[in-house]
Amino acid sequence: MERKNINRGFKRLRVWQDSVALYVLACKIFAGFPFELKKVVSNALDAAHSISRNIAEGYCRRSLKEYLNHLNIGLGSCGEFYSCYESFWRAGQITVDEYNELDQLHYKVENGLLKLIGALQEKQTSGNWEDSFQPK
Q: Percentage of residues in the chain with pLDDT exceeding 90?
């Protein structure tokens, strides 16, 4: 049973769906890391997970200013996660195929975030944003 309400509208956003998929992929790829690297893996997974969490939290705030702030935090987490898997690849801890799989999806998420931020900045400039939960 799917539960729907206005506060869960972020689930329809492709960038949110893709960012969740990126976290799931990262979990799969990093699952085999040795125990002594669990701290760096944990940090990488937290960065990947932070992207979807910030999209959701910003959406639920209902304020355009706060939404944009959380999207920018998510974009920062996106950069942090990129640095993590780039480092893992350069250290020989993931294969080139795993790197390319992560990088392809990460690139899609990063560009999706940039497009969403741009679209919301246009709404901010035009004043075309409704903070209310009331239907029009």
A: 81
The answer for residues whose C-beta is within 8 angstroms of residue 86's C-beta and 6 or more apart is 99
User: Three-state secondary structure along 9-72?
Assistant: HHHHCHHHHHHHHHHHHHHHHHCCCCHHHHHHHHHHHHHHHHHHHHHHHHHHHCCHHHHHHHHH
**Residue whose tokens read 């959380």:** 70
Distance in Å from the first CA to the final CA of the chain: 28
18-21-27-29 Cα dihedral, nearest 10 degrees: -90
| Residue 2 to residue 37: CA distance in whole angstroms | 38
Residue-wise pLDDT tens digits, 68-115: 999 999 999 999 999 999 999 999 999 999 999 999 999 999 999 999
Q: What is the pLDDT, as a whole number, of residue 128?
A: 73
With beta carbons less than 8 A apart as the criterion, state whether 131 and 41 touch: no
